[in-house]
Amino acid sequence: MDSRAALFLAFRFWPGFQKLWLKGDLHSLLVSLLFSWVFVIAWLATFVWPEWLVGFLSPVWLAKSVHFGLWLAIVGVSLLSATGTFFRLSSSGDLGPAERQENLQKAQELYLQANYFDAERLIRKNMFGAYEDVESLLLWISILRRTRRIPLALELIAQVDKLDAAAPWLSELRTEKEQCLRIKIQTPPAHD
Question: How far apart are CA 146 and CA 141, in angstroms?
């Protein structure tokens, strides 16, 4: 397991982090920040200022109970986050390379038959856990362009362009971007 995968695995224990990292979800940002603050407060109360909570909570037993409760909550929420992520990953069928390749080939066949939505369903299944599968991402961009979802296609092009694995595909990305921009210019703006 490479260091990047190990780090990503470790962050399963940080509630909200994976969804925040992968999708930029605002709710996940708030959950992740709340967990961070609770963790920092517990860390400070344990290792930096052990008598800190006693100053806020006058009976010592109450301070120690709150201190223990903080750590219990941190461990419990971390384990729930990790097991929830694990079960989501395992139930959604994390695919191996052979299955990804098979899905890509099926999606390409569906794409050539102009069955874009079924092709997209297969590609999206491929994308789970393999965020640098540039071939699948390029096909997805083409599907988005063909179904006239140009803003989403342009956003995905910008994200793929940042991947190191996209270097061999830069000319294809540039072509897709030009085609999307051409469609965007030709399409009249929607009136609200």
Answer: 9
